[in-house]
Amino acid sequence: MNSQQSGHPTGEGAHALRFAALLATYMQSANLPVPNAVLRLIQGSLSMTDDQAGWIFTSYLAASAITLPVAQWLAGRYGLKLVYQTALAFFALGLLLATLATTPLEFVGARIIQGLASGVLAPLSMAISMETLALEKRAKFGATWTAIVLFGIVSGPSIGGWVGEHFDWRPIFYISLPLSAYIFLVMALLLKEKKAEQRPSFDFFGFGTFTLGLISLQMLLDRGERLDWFASTEICLEALGCALGFYLFAVHVLTAKVHFLNKRLFDDRNFVLSTVIFFAVGFVLLSTMALTSPMLDEILGYPPDTTGFLTIPRGVGLVGAFLLMGRVPERFDRRGFVAAGVALVVYANWLMLGYSPLMDEWPVAVAGAVQGIGIGVLMPSLTKVAFSTLDPALRPEGTGLFNLSRVYGSTLGVAIVQLFFFNNTQAMHSALVSNLTPYRAAALSVPTSLQALEGLNEMITGQAAFIALIGQFKILLVVMLVVSPLVVFLRKPAAAN
Asked: Which residue of 34, 75, 107, 126 is surrounded by the most CB atoms within 10 Å?
């Protein structure tokens, strides 16, 4: 279906529509990590505890994971233009509520609204962009769209850091308000309403049970430490919801003839293995960012703009490598690039184990750049391998599941590393303090005034947090090492023959 057949404008109108859709793609992806470099400012302003800070990311990710699978159905049922503009309005509402928040709960609620809208905007922005292109140009457009998503993810913290350092943390959300208004106006003027000719069907039972399991697991991980785990009725209910949701979903997939995950997808070895590796990539990418910024900002005391700028090497490496991979001739076997990408990400995570409180900015910049290059090589190569042997009729569903695996990996990854980070910080703090007996204090001439003891406790807390942080980088290294042997079992893609 070309742009004329679909009722969309051609020429300058099509360019304006595509630009607005791509701007929305960048905006929703950049707003995920944009608070990363100003966490200390947000926490201080809202009296937010360290464990609550993790909700800033997990709430956005989990909310987008809920609406992402149902976005196309909503557009087919109620109309692409209506659903898209509604999502834009909710996204702008979430931005506004974030700037008005005075408590952690209000801020997290605003992030949930942003995430719910983001899960709709991302796939529909791509659909709108594709509609404005001729058929022969659509195949290569997916790489452009993915590059914009990645650029948003890696550039968001640098923007937030600069704005937060020179103004405040609230203006980082104001930036997207005029962008949302511009996109809304372009869509209102140029986008033609489009609904499915027949009322679309959707597996709400499968979607609902999977969502129940995922959200229950997310809540369990986020709130377990605060509520003393299974001593809390809420945590027990969330654990029950998680087990029940995933159990019902598994039974549904195995017994139902039609559901929103086609069982034939799991017959393709390349697709299944690539999806698992892609899950690990999502687990590592955003989790690294969620750990690095607090390390620089809170433990090492870097200003927000420096914290944000240190994400640039990762972004340049990732987007640059991703774009260069698009120029690799088709005759080259992509499995070699997958192996190289995995090796580079593993090496980058290994470099992160050498972080020290005495280091300068260079180790962070180098490790980030290496990881960015590795992921930039890995993602397009993995996509090529995943779909090279898949039945073309299954590719639309496969694309949805493949992208969801990265989102789910990011959601669980951030929650897990945040959980273990705070647990290990407390354990390490206790271990360090246990060695500070009165006799040791006297021998080491440690001052015992209240002010001196507060300073000593702050120093010990910083050391405990840094040791715990290195432990979380080790988790990310292990995740990539666990999935790395899967590369050996990938079949040679047909395109490489």
From this structure: 34
Q: What is the pLDDT of residues 272-298, one digit of tens each?
A: 999 999 999 989 988 888 888 878 877
Task: Please state, in angstroms and rounded to a whole number, the distance separating the CA atoms of residues 292 and 423.
Answer: 18
Is residue 384 domain-shared with residue 276, that is, in the same domain?
yes
Continuous H helices in 353-394: 362-388
Tell me how far the alpha carbon of residue 469 is from its chain's centroid. 19
Q: Are both 387 and 279 inside the same structural domain?
A: yes
Is-above-0.85 flag for pTM? no
For the chain, what is the domain count?
3
Rg (CA), the chain: 23
Per-residue pLDDT reduced to its tens digit, 343-366: 999 999 999 999 988 888 899 999
Q: Within 79-203, where are the H helices?
A: 80-100, 104-131, 135-166, 171-174, 176-190
d(CA 88, CA 195): 18
Distance CA 133, CA 155 (A): 27
Residue ending a domain, among 215, 234, 259, is 259
User: What sign results for the dihedral spanned by CA atoms 346, 350, 353, 355?
Assistant: negative
pLDDT digits (tens, 9 = 90+) for 85-115: 999 999 999 999 999 999 989 999 999 999 9
Other C-beta atoms lying within 10 Å of the C-beta of residue 104 = 18
Q: Is 289:157 a contact under the CB 8 Å cutoff? A: yes
Beta carbons of 335 and 192 less than 8 angstroms apart: no
Contact 133, 17 (CB under 8 A): no
Query: Based on the domain organization, do 338 and 485 belong to the same domain?
Result: yes
